[in-house]
Every structure is written in C-alpha cells, then in structure tokens.
Amino acid sequence: MTERTLSIIKPDATRRNICGKIISMLEDAGLRVIAQKRIHLTENQAKNFYSVHSESPFYQELCEFMISGPVVVQVLEGENAINRNRDVMGATNPEQAAPGTIRKELAVSLTENSVHGSDSPENAAVEIAFFFSDTDIVG
Ligand code: CMP
C-alpha cells in the first residue's frame, strides 16, 4: 500500500552538511521526497511537535536540541513508507541500530540521532499536517 510519512533531518545532520547523504539513503530504500523544506523550528513548534514526550525526562534536552539549528522536514511516499522509513532510519539509539541504517552510519547519539520518522499512519497524518498543507505536496 502506498503511504506517506513525515521525516525530519535533525540539526546534527544539517550542521554536518549531510542532508544529501541521508536523502540518498532514503531514496535507495525506495522512498520518494514529495515535499521538503528547510526551516528553523521555534521553541513552541518543537514543544508542540514532541508534546507526546512532555512527561519524559529527555523532553527539555530534545526540544533544546531541535531548535539548535535548522532542520529539513519532508513528506516521503512509497510502499509501506512508514515502516520502510523506520527500517532505513534504524533504532532510536544509534548504538543499537543495525549496520547500514542512517542512525548507525551517521547519528551522533540518542538525542542527536539525525532523523525522525512517524511511527504510525495516524501520527503520520498529524505530523504531515503539522508542517505541510495539501498544496505543498506535489507528488
Ligand atoms: P525521535 O524518533 O525523533 O523521537 C523522540 C526523540 O527523543 C528520539 O527520536 C530521540 O532523539 C530523543 N530521545 C532522547 N532520549 C531518549 C530516550 N531515552 N528514549 C527515546 N527517545 C529519546
């Protein structure tokens, strides 16, 4: 089934100028970038986007990191795009990620883990709408 998912290339990756490398890995995994923009999140945007983690001990550090530099937000499309993207991203903690995944090959740490991807169809719809309107998504 063709799906869409929300991807974020995080500040550790924009800082190191490795967005192209990450996009290549996404494309090689069968995903297509159908919308994309480079933005600097506000504190409010970061807090709202990650509000599901607001009770977690890492929430503050996560939000501070996400506003520490620009991010690239993307809509990815493909067969089973949500799981396909999670597979190519690898485990949240780069130390536990499989070889060949984005986080294993490129991430710095659990917080500075280079990429975010939606974890369910419901969250993908909410997260895509957080950053993009229908007219931004050109297919
Ligand atoms: P992400 O997939 O963007 O979703 C939440 C983020 O919180 C996660 O990636 C990590 O970068 C960050 N994070 C920091 N500490 C933890 C933790 N202990 N468990 C899960 N996520 C964490």
Give your account of this protein's structure:
The protein has 139 residues and is α+β, with helices and mostly antiparallel strands. It is 40% helix and 20% strand. The protein contains seven helices and four strands. The protein has helices at residues 11-15, 19-28, 43-49, 59-66, 81-89, 102-106, 121-131, and strands at residues 2-9, 32-39, 71-79, 115-117. A four-stranded antiparallel sheet has the order 2-3-1-4. The longest helix is centred in the C-terminal third of the chain and has 11 residues, at 121-131. The mean pLDDT is 98. The chain binds adenosine-3',5'-cyclic-monophosphate (CMP). The site of adenosine-3',5'-cyclic-monophosphate has 8 residues, from loops.
